[in-house]
Amino acid sequence: MDKRILIVAVDYDDDVSRVGVKTPLLGYSEVLDAALKFGTYFPDDSDLNVLFHALYLYNDLKSRGYEPEVAMVSGHPESHVEAGRRLVEQINYVSSVAKCSDVVLVLDSIEDELVIPVIQGRVNIVSVERVIVEQLRGVEETYVLLGKYIRKALEEPRFSRVFLGLPGFLLLLYVLISATPYYIHAWEVTLAALGIFLIVKGFHIPEAILRRWRSSSIYRVTGVLSLISIAAGIAFTIGAVVGRDFSVDPKSLSTYVKTALPFASLALAVLYSGRLATRVLRRSIRVWRDVVAISAVVLIATYINSLADTISTYPALDILVILYDLQVVNTFTTLMLTLVIVYVIMSYVERQILAQTRKS
Fold first, then answer.
1. Which residues 6+ apart lie within 8 Å of 22 measured at CB?
2. Helix, strand, or coil here: 231?
3. Quick one: pLDDT at residue 324?
């Protein structure tokens, strides 16, 4: 039986480079020198325990009749890709020089365990020694995960926009509103801005807009027009809210709705019209979907406009009374069911036509 075995101390994030130690290291004396040098500067670092534990295993296996060799490899402090690449190169080197196919890995953290799937298949891992000193594994895992998330939030643009950019914008908005005569509404406006952001991100609206933007020049034109309409609607609605001193009586709410409704309806109608024009040019059978969508926008906008006119005549904002007197729920349910029935019927007709087309 082959008694040769290689003990590899793993420093995934290359902490030893901070004291000028260059890896890979091979041999008891080299690893011991590195441990002493590293321990002189960082005596409380857990990587020091990895080095001494590797040396302990060397002596222990040698006393048991094995022919051990000890080595040290390191990765990269920032890049997982670079760390994995360097670890593979160094482990291949030390195993070939030591002429050992059996390897014992000595690790000290959850992050170091990332080396295991990287080198599996290249060497025969016969054992993994985990050195946990004066800390609980669960606490360590939490620390590592928290550190990764904080690093992502600070360094990666797609995360920093949310974790840094959004709070910064909300804080600035709150401060600006607090400096105006409408400071008592600073929280409401700030929360409204946060709600808009969550809706936009939750429904992946930017991604949908980009897909449309890239797919057709018609979508680009209708998209710009829709955004202009939405921006104008927001501006006029804010003006109406400020003009009525943030009131929430029935007449004020009716004014807000009637101000925003035309712009929102126009934006949706323009978007669906752009898709309708694209499908007409492509002679798509799905043209009916956009016709139904535009019709639904017109019907719903007309109904909401009429509802807003009626609500403005009520002396007080009693939601239950308004819902009961105007039969809002019944009317809206009937309208939605009608649209759903039309959509189902047209979908069935579309499938039948496509089926007949395929057969022919």
1. none
2. helix
3. 63
Domain residues for 300?
A: 205-359
**CA proximity to 31, closest of 4, 58, 5:** 58
The single-letter DSSP state of residue 161 is I
The residue type found at 170 is L
Enter the tokens of residue 153: 């939030």
Burial pattern 66-77, b for ≥16 Cβ within 10 A else e, equals: bebbbbbbbbbe
Contact 307, 301 (CB under 8 A): no
147 occurs within a structural domain: no
Cα–Cα distance for residue pair 21/33, rounded to 1 Å: 9
Q: Where are the alpha helices (DSSP H) in the chain?
A: 28-41, 46-63, 80-98, 115-119, 137-155, 157-160, 166-178, 186-202, 205-215, 217-243, 250-281, 287-311, 319-326, 328-359
| Domain-ending residue, one of 142, 168, 195 | 142
Q: Does one domain contain both 347 and 223?
A: yes
Q: Look at residue 70 in the predicted model and tell me its pLDDT.
A: 93
In degrees and rounded to multiples of 5, residue 131 shows phi and psi of -100, 105
Which amino acid would we find at residue 117? P
The two three-digit tokens of residue 258, written as one number: 């009637």
Tell whether 344 and 319 lie within a shared domain.
yes
Q: What pLDDT is recorded for position 69? A: 92
- For the chain, which residues score pLDDT lower than 50? 135-136
Residues 42 and 173 in one domain: no
Q: Residue 315: its pLDDT value, please?
A: 65
Query: Phi, psi at residue 107, to the nearest 5°?
Result: -125, 165
Sign of CA dihedral 98, 104, 106, 110: positive
pLDDT of residue 320: 58
CB 227 within 8 A of CB 208: no
Pair 25, 72: CB distance under 8 Å: yes
Q: Is residue 167 part of a domain?
A: yes
Same domain assignment for residues 212 and 183: no
**Residue 136's pLDDT is what?**
47
> Are residues 175 and 210 located together in one domain of the fold?
no
Q: What is the pTM of this model?
A: 0.47
